[in-house]
Design brief:
Number of strands: 0
Strand content: under 5%
Shape: globular
Largest sheet: none
Distance between the termini: 45 Å
Number of helices: 14
Order of helices and strands: HHHHHHHHHHHHHH
Helix content: over 70%
């Protein structure tokens, strides 16, 4: 059966079925994506652009913005190192306990962020396992920035590893083994062979990890203590302002979060487009012809 015949077989449904499915998808996007975003920006601008800027320039809001960016700037690079190491270990090696390590990587997906925050309180809180020792050495983790960073790292660490593990498994070990046979050491193999092959998946995982880090609410809410100007991230600051009926200020900060999400979506789309373009160019490129060494004269 030709490709044209296959396409005709696949697309034999009536036109009204296609239009109905497209209409349902558009209505769903309109109700659950476009309208909420429009409402956020409309409420933020309800009292004018001056009030909008005032909500962002307010000291507590500026402190929340800085803390959110600092937390993401710490959590994402640490998860980058962990994600690459975990993916390399799981995808490239066979060892006892590999399935258990894979399960641990997926653990934050199955544990509620609130429960994760409570775990850190149990460990590092004043009445926790390490609380007395931390208090004796004047080290503060819970209700401080270190606790926020730890909670954020926990809820975001699967994103990079989960993007890289199937990608590395599908690529196999042939190129790395060839590089080692040719004399490359471990770091040269990683930088010159492995990293170029996983760069798009790595960038995609970093984008998702950063988006979750900036928007995390549950775990951070438990360990932060909601101290104005000190331990409130942007999502927590939005909640406090909304509960105090400061709707314009709350939606101003929420609109900034929405803008960050839209920027993340644009970057993600560009990365996917570049990756698809690169894959298409590689598929359309003519195969390299093998270089044959000349046969000595008089042979055969």
């Amino acid at each position: 059966m030709s490709n044209l015949t296959k396409k005709r077989v696949i697309t034999t449904e009536a036109p009204w079925v296609r239009y109905t499915l497209i209409g349902i998808a558009l209505v769903f996007l309109l109700l659950f994506l476009v309208l909420p975003l429009a409402a956020v920006f409309t409420e933020a601008m309800r009292k004018g652009f001056g009030a909008y800027l005032e909500g962002l320039r307010e000291p507590d809001a500026w402190s929340a913005i800085k803390l959110t960016l600092i937390t993401a700037a710490i959590a994402v690079p640490l998860n980058l190192v962990f994600g690459v190491a975990a993916a390399w270990c799981i995808a490239k090696y066979e060892f006892r306990g590999k399935a258990f390590l894979t399960t641990l990587v997926d653990l934050p997906f199955s544990v509620s962020p609130v429960v994760a925050g409570l775990i850190y309180v149990l460990m590092f809180g004043a009445q926790g396992w390490f609380g007395p020792w931390l208090a004796a050495h004047d080290i503060k983790i819970i209700f401080a920035v270190p606790g926020i960073v730890l909670a954020t790292i926990f809820v975001t660490f699967p994103f990079i590893a989960r993007e890289l593990i199937p990608l590395m498994q599908s690529q196999g070990n042939d190129e790395e083994q060839a590089a080692i046979v040719l004399g490359a050491n471990g770091w040269q193999t990683f930088w010159l062979v492995t990293l170029p092959n996983i760069k798009w998946g790595l960038i995609y995982g970093v984008i998702l990890c950063n988006a979750r880090a900036m928007g995390e609410f549950g775990a951070v809410s438990v360990v932060s203590g909601h101290i104005r100007g000190q331990t409130n991230t942007m999502p927590l600051h939005v909640e406090i302002l909304y509960n105090e009926y400061q709707s314009v200020a709350a939606f101003s900060v929420a609109s900034l979060l929405a803008l960050l999400a839209l920027v993340t979506l644009v970057i993600k789309s560009v990365v996917e487009w570049r990756h698809e373009r690169e894959m298409k160019a590689a598929a359309e490129a003519p195969p390299e012809r093998p270089v044959l060494s000349p046969r000595p004269l008089g042979e055969g």
